Amino acid sequence: MLKNYKFTVPEINTRQRIDKYIAQFIEGISRTRVQKCINLGFLTVNGDIVKSNYIVKPADEIDIDIPVTEKQDIEPEDIPLDIIFEDKHLLVVNKPAGMVTHPGYSNYNGTLVNAVLFHAMKSSDLLSNLNGFERAGIVHRLDKDTSGLLVIAKDENTHRKLSDQFFHHTIEREYNAIVWGAFREKSGTIKGKIGRDKRDRKKMSVIPDDEPGGKEAITLYEVIEEFELASLVKLNLKTGRTHQIRVHMSFTGHPVFGDETYGGRRPQSKLLSSKMRSHIKNLLELIPRQALHARVLGFIHPADNKFMRFESNLPEDMNNLITRLRG
Predict the structure, then answer these.
(1) Which of 21, 104, 228, 319 has CB atoms 3.0–4.6 Å from 16's, for a disulfide?
(2) Which carries the bigger pLDDT value, residue 209 or residue 180?
(3) Catalytic residue among 143, 145, 155, 259
(4) Domains in the chain, start-ordered, CATH in brackets?
């Protein structure tokens, strides 16, 4: 269970990190616990997720959820990992849909972190503790129901250098998605600030340019194949915002097929026959999640400075959906 706190920063004359600032105002909470909440995405400032070293400013709107009980220990679990590459510095894994990346509220077991900790223990490897033990060296994340490639650091130097590449958007990241409808332009660029949805803080949304809040987000798309109801698209991220592809696709009127949060589990046209609606229902039953897969991951290896590029085939559920759409 979470307890929510909201407050506005008054006029202040000193520079203070947000983790230290919050620890002063919530009774019985330590700075370390605040940092854990921030790492788990339980805190926003002006609707945006920030890091523990964020410097608070006058008029900042802070919103934080605090678990009422301390998070349980994260234990290694013998969960199979699809390892694409591994050396003494890092490993690249292919995450299946349905697996949570990081432990969080109500998800302390069965996560990628639990699996990685077991793998490291079995092979007597170390993992980076740069962002806390519960991160287990995982440099970036994928949503629970998004499948595909992730890189994990085994030491802090590797973690820092990979994080720097993500920060400067020099990582190559290519996704495949099945989305509703056909595009007028077969390729293009989607731009739109992304921040917390004001009506539902569990969701993200595109923030109008003339409104405060949100962070710049850029997604490149290219249509690979068109079907009667949907399109298979290739997507490249130039920024890395929470739910970026799902939000941008929904914003353009082409939500990711099967995405319950952003409108992907309902027909995008009201002018459909009962036969077509039945057909769509059957298609949706093939994939109980958003049809989104992180297919390509490329980066400079932190140890030898060589470019490495990995590819992952589309998972079975997406291939089955494509086959039915073609038929």
Answers:
(1) 21
(2) 180
(3) 143
(4) 2-67 (3.10.290.10), 83-168 (3.30.2350.10), 174-294 (3.30.2350.10)
